[in-house]
Fold:
Amino acid sequence: MYGGQLPTTGFSGVIYAVIGLCLIVVAAVAAGARWLLGLFR
Amino acid sequence: MRALRILAWVSGLAGCALLLYTGFLVWDPFAAQRQHALIGDLSHQWAQPSQVSQASGCSGSVPQVRPAPGKPFALIRIPRFGPGWKFTITEGATLAQLSGGPGHVTGTQFPGQPGNFAVAAHDITAGNPFLHLGDLRKGNIITVATKCDVYRYAVQSKQVVRYTDIAVLDPVPGQPAKRPRKQLITLITCTPVTLAFTPYRIIVTGHLVSVTPRVSAARGGL
Structure:
């Protein structure tokens, strides 16, 4: 019965939120690095 | 510098898009539409006389025809969740089948049969059917209407188990070898309410307190 498990009833879209947050962090780091590089030019 | 600028813009936009998409999945604006279609399907089915009897298709309290996977066959109401709270129960409890609303766990009994009628549903998405399942208390009523009858169950217990604890689905929960005499209902959803997978399920079990013929069975009304 469902592979010996109770049915999965949770929200499966959390992976999109995790990837989205990671990308926003990457964007913030890139923007910060660009700003810092601009300071020392 | 240019590469950093492009990276910041692309990842920032992609990240925001994914967060918006997650919000869309949680909000699930088409859930009501899917549920409406299922109710229409059920209404149509109930209006049709089946092969098992002459007039309304009701030849007894035990369902004679097994519903096809993904097809609605009953309507569940839980008054504690509000007078307007009602969902169809479809056959099967895979992720796809639960996207429309609650689903009957295949292999467990049907209403009217001795044993355990298990119904699973999402807490979040698909109209959030079992979002407040944990609020049910002993004695709360769960009503399941089939084509012929209305089954009233009273909540008798509530527990949290791991997702591997399938003994709660036994005809006599936890006693697989025992022959069932009572008619039970088991409602299942994830707990705690979270936007992530959780290994825990909240299990609400009720016992049958009454069966009455569905007044409008012959007319197919809901």
